[in-house]
């Protein structure tokens, strides 16, 4: 089968449908109608002479022929990406659009100021920043670069560590005045503790170090939130004791709305922050520029430097 332009487009479309699990999702990703996706898939199946998916009302499953064709579709995708990247890298100037994702709290506090500097340095680059606390599928959503916090699952993505967020234990003076003594980590079991929780993780195991060694405490409290910035707001309103990224505290410690607790102890286990991007033989110049910029500038930013 000689691959004409429409056949190459059909193979790429077929790969998107398989990756996303539905014709509707592929249509939304590509910005075309579902009927157009259906027609292109049907045309590719006619050209090949076999069905590529077995379809039900709930899901689509690759046929045996579909599995074989998918291998070739991936080769076509890679070839087209390589051609695109060769073209981009042949340009001497850094220009074009970048789609970037980041967790919301750290994105607002740490990433946005750095992006402002980056865009001043490279005025022909346009960044579309997506702040989102859910797990983002970079391939399916066409994300060029993602900034992620916490330990990463194994994947084919490239991850380079930017540093570790610096944790601090704090509470409002009013909360401490009306609560039991808090002189050592084990006292936290008698306190209302504020901590991060989402569908995948609960950060209720707090660790501290001192000249006496390391100590961990399983904490509890009446309020858990999946937004670190909202946790800071709750602590300011005297809801409990909090461990958070020092960079998210803003002026709350400077103006006395929050105060540090357990001065003789250090919070252990600051979460790592990574810049993540798809594995590619050719990385576009604009992508490489932002990756290198973040590797150079983010470590000082997250340490308050």
Give keywords.
3 domains; Arc Repressor Mutant, subunit A; D-Maltodextrin-Binding Protein, domain 2; elongated; 15 strands; alpha/beta
Q: What's the arrangement of strands in the largest beta sheet?
A: 4-3-5-15-6
Shape: elongated
Poorly predicted runs are none
The CATH level-2 architecture of the largest domain is identified as 3-Layer(aba) Sandwich
CATH topology of the largest domain: D-Maltodextrin-Binding Protein, domain 2
Strand content: 15-25%
Radius of gyration, in angstroms, nearest whole number: 25 Å
Output the number of helix runs.
8
* Mean pLDDT over all positions: 85
Structural class: alpha/beta
Number of domains: 3
The helix fraction, in percent, is: 25-40%
E-strand count: 15
SSE run: HHHEEHEHEEEEHEEEEHEEEEH
CATH class designation of the largest domain? Alpha Beta
Largest sheet: 5 strands, mixed
Give a brief rundown of this model.
The protein is built from eight helices and 15 strands.
């Amino acid at each position: 089968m000689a691959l004409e332009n429409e056949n190459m487009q059909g193979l790429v479309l077929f790969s998107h449908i398989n990756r996303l699990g539905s014709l509707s999702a592929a249509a939304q990703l590509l910005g075309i109608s579902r009927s157009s996706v259906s027609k292109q898939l049907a045309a590719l199946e006619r050209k090949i002479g076999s069905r590529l998916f077995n379809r039900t009302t709930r899901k689509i499953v690759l046929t045996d022929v579909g599995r074989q064709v998918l291998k070739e579709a991936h080769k076509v995708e890679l070839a087209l990406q390589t051609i695109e990247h060769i073209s981009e890298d042949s340009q001497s100037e850094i220009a074009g659009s970048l789609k970037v994702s980041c967790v919301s709290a750290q994105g607002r506090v740490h990433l946005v100021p750095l992006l402002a500097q980056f865009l001043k340095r490279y005025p022909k680059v346009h960044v579309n920043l997506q702040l989102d606390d859910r797990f983002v599928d970079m391939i399916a959503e066409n994300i060029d670069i993602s900034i992620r916090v916490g330990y990463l699952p194994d994947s084919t993505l490239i991850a380079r560590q930017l540093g570790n967020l610096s944790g601090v234990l704090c509470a409002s003076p009013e909360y401490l005045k009306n609560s039991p003594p808090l002189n050592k980590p084990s006292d936290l079991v008698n306190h209302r503790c504020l901590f991060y929780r989402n569908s995948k993780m609960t950060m209720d195991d707090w660790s501290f170090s001192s000249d006496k060694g390391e100590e961990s405490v399983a904490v509890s409290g009446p309020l858990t939130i999946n937004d670190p910035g909202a946790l800071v707001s709750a602590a300011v309103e005297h809801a409990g004791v909090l461990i958070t990224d020092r960079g998210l505290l803003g002026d709350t410690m400077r103006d006395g709305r929050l105060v540090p607790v357990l001065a003789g102890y250090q919070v252990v286990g600051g979460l790592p922050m990574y810049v993540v991007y798809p594995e590619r033989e050719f990385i576009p110049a604009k992508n490489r520029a932002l990756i290198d910029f973040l590797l150079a500038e983010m470590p000082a930013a997250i340490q308050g430097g």
